[in-house]
Amino acid sequence: MNIDKDTVEKIAHLARLEFDEKEQEQIINDMNNMLLFVNKLNEVDTSTIEPLIYMSDETNILREDEVKQEITQEQALKNAPKKDSDYFKVPKVIDKQ
What we know:
mainly alpha, elongated
């Protein structure tokens, strides 16, 4: 597959880009070089290679969650613009249909 002027114009239209003639020629050359590189990868025998699931063999070491009471409910509600005795009051954002 080769990239031509029409292909670049279609891609530019979809991406909402505009190029002058000089830029368009450079883009055609760059895109054709990218396709040549990808086609080179097709020449490599990968039949004995297992699919890569993770980029490394490292595993995440996660800490246990610890419940801490940093502030009281009263302190949390202290500066709230709208509240009742136990909760923050917020505008309704979901309508039931």
